[in-house]
Queue: 2 jobs
Job 1
Amino acid sequence: MNKPVNNKQTSKKKISPANIVFTIFIILLGSIILILSYSIYLKLTTQTAGKQDINKAADIVQLEVMNGCGAAGIADKFSEYLREHNFDVVTLGNYRSYDINNSFVIDRTGNTANAEKVADALGIDRKYIVQQISDEYFLDVSLVIGRDYNNLKPLK
């Protein structure tokens, strides 16, 4: 006597196309998650590394020189002095007013070491360094020359 054969036991399981698509979709999502996780890891580690150097002045500081006292040609004289001392003067111009008594340096990037380097090169007291970080400026520092320009290094 032969036993009846159960069709469910002898037939091989068929893989449906929907299961194949679902498996591929899961593998793709897993890959994307791994790539994004690695990208976040790299972003966080490079930001941490960059913060360690934030208080180190750049080899060449890019700056603008603005006349805030109204003396003719003063921005040119200071620019010439700064260029002779390895600063990259990008632009010259006038400040919004001519009644600035004390020259000051504006830190544009958040790295105060660059502003301190400019202030030290000109003999400006570090208490006259202000920070105005802005994405609109493509330079490190702005220098505003005040009425005290005769007391600064370029004219001594």
Note: Helices lie at 7-10, 17-52, 74-84, 112-122.
Job 2
Amino acid sequence: MAAEPAHPAGGRADAGDDRRTDPTRDRRRTTPPIGEVYEWYQRGVRLLADGHAAAAAQPLARAAEAEPSSRSIREALARAWYDAGRYAQARAAFAELVAADPVDDYALFGYGLAAGRLGDHRDAVEHLALAVAMRPDVAHYGRALRRARAALKGS
């Protein structure tokens, strides 16, 4: 989540949707991942990198369930939920990361983005401002904070 993620399909919600032509799609979505925790994590991270956030959430959620103390797994899952438009789940996951490490600038940034998407602009500004204060050199943190402040003024 180096920058605020774009819609994976790049436009129309049905762009690239192969459900009508791929009868195994639904079966793949409900089949639990095979392998060990690290393999689930790696599979989820690859799917996330390839722009398949909703699909990435399944193996990452399974990995997080098996290894609840793993920050890298929980962060990847929070990113997947955010990129999949599941902002409430992303916000909760980033909140857990912030609670465990209040100086995690990336978790604050992710929390702020998710809060903004949920319309909680005051909370978004608060968390994004903390992220910017910790890492003023990260340009996309500052851009996100400016957008959140503008949204707060407009609400």
Note: The helical segments are 25-30, 37-49, 53-66, 71-83, 87-100, 105-117, 121-134, 139-154.
